[in-house]
């Protein structure tokens, strides 16, 4: 039997070519022989158009951050809410916030049930939320001093509230004009936003989270949950500062006056009509009295002259 031929394992491995092998030299020559790609020169106008389309102009700050999203949310809240209440809170616990929101929702639902048929239900749209004071103040400046409908620059459509142009215009006008809410925008704040000006719903909110002599809180027998420790603890740490109604600032007394309007906006219109009718009636009486007195004077003078002629 012939002997078997045995090969070492190293003989089966492929040897790496030397650094100066022909294959390596060929690859190097091909790499050096290749012509470089021509450089693409783009103008700043094309880069700006590609990065910032007309539908989304550049923002003053990155739009994807949380602060920018809150800024946009507060702008929408201020523009869509004709009535906003401002409260100052102090270390209110999460369970206390939950209890306050529960009692507020129940009170507003009760008002909707009473006004069914005469007014659209808005209880689900009235929310009590905590805000970031600095971002809210900046959003208020944009809403007060910047009009997104008017074009800012010729040939540009920077109409959104996060644009650099909106920030610059708001900062310039802020130095000359004042919104009136500057003294209230300090410290931890919470707001209650209303989609419409409804004195009935405002009265329910004041009676629930800011009770007073004019707006008493519900009795323990009528609503025992309202007098729980969580609700009362939250009420002790919540204070009403004022309100923003139709772009105007109202203090605590003015806010109570709006909530105390009997019959809501309908009752206010009825009072206005009655007042105008009273003014019209008094004006008519004054004019009639003047004409009647003039007629009596002329008539007495005529009779006097006739008597003298007969004599």
Automatic annotation (TrEMBL):
<comment type="similarity">
    <text>Belongs to the universal ribosomal protein uL10 family.</text>
</comment>
<feature type="region of interest" description="Disordered">
    <location>
        <begin position="34"/>
        <end position="70"/>
    </location>
</feature>
<dbReference type="InterPro" id="IPR043141">
    <property type="entry name" value="Ribosomal_uL10-like_sf"/>
</dbReference>
<dbReference type="InterPro" id="IPR047865">
    <property type="entry name" value="Ribosomal_uL10_bac_type"/>
</dbReference>
<protein>
    <recommendedName>
        <fullName>Ribosomal protein L10</fullName>
    </recommendedName>
</protein>
<feature type="compositionally biased region" description="Low complexity">
    <location>
        <begin position="34"/>
        <end position="44"/>
    </location>
</feature>
């Amino acid at each position: 039997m012939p002997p078997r031929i045995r090969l070492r394992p190293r003989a089966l491995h492929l040897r790496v070519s030397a650094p100066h092998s022909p294959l390596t030299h060929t690859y190097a020559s091909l790499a050096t022989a290749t012509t470089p790609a021509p450089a693409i020169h783009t103008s700043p106008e094309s880069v700006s158009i590609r990065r910032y389309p007309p539908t989304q102009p550049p923002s003053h700050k990155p739009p994807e951050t949380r602060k920018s999203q809150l800024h946009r949310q507060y702008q929408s809240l201020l523009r869509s809410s004709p009535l906003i209440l401002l409260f100052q809170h102090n270390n209110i616990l999460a369970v206390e916030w939950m209890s306050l929101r529960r009692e507020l929702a129940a009170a507003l639902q009760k008002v909707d049930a009473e006004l069914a048929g005469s007014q659209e239900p808005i209880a689900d749209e009235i929310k009590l939320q905590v805000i970031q004071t600095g971002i809210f103040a900046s959003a208020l400046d944009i809403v007060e001093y910047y009009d997104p409908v008017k074009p800012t620059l010729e040939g540009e459509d920077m109409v959104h509230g996060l644009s650099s142009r909106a920030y610059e215009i708001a900062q310039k006008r802020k130095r000359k004009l004042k919104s009136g809410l500057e003294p209230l925008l300090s410290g931890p704040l919470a707001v209650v936003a209303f989609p419409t000006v409804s004195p009935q719903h405002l009265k329910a909110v004041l009676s629930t989270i800011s009770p007073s002599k004019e707006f008493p809180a519900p009795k323990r027998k009528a609503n025992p949950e309202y007098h729980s420790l969580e609700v009362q603890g939250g009420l002790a740490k919540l204070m009403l500062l004022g309100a923003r109604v139709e772009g105007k600032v109202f203090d605590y007394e003015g806010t109570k006056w709006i909530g105390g309007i009997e019959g809501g906006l309908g009752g206010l219109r009825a009072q206005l009509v009655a007042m105008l009718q009273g003014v019209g009636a008094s004006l008519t009486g004054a004019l009639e009295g003047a004409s009647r007195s003039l007629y009596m004077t002329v008539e007495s003078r005529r009779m006097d002259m006739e008597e003298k002629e007969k004599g």
